Amino acid sequence: MERNPKVKNLKSKRLPIEFGANVDEAIEKAVENALREHKRASVPVAVWRDGKVVLLQPEEILPDERTHK
User: Fold this and answer.
1) Are 57 and 46 in contact (CB under 8 A)?
2) What is the pTM of this model?
3) Per-residue DSSP letters for 6-55?
4) Helix or strand or coil: residue 68?
């Protein structure tokens, strides 16, 4: 399978550091939204805890729960 040459070029480009905070904020908001949706839909969510992947049950998902504990 051949690689698309455009993909290689995209990987080699880096965002200016000034965008780092915006990216971090967007990721945090996305995680919060995903957790909220899992809780609302009564669906467990996989998170990383103590070096392992664990399933959080909907009743365990707190409003300020983060996956990077």
Assistant:
1) no
2) 0.60
3) HHHHHHH----GGGHHHHHHHHHHHHHHHHHHHHHTT--EEEEETTEEEE
4) coil
Assess contact for 62 and 52: CB atoms under 8 A: no
Residue 59 lies in a domain: yes
Q: How far apart are CA 49 and CA 56, in angstroms?
A: 10
Domain that holds residue 26: 18-69
Q: Tell me if 23 is assigned to some domain.
A: yes
Does the structure show a pLDDT above 50 at 68?
Answer: no
pLDDT per residue as tens digits for the range 25-46: 899 999 999 999 999 999 999 9
Q: What percent of the chain has pLDDT over 90?
A: 49
Q: How far apart are CA 55 and CA 49, in angstroms?
A: 10
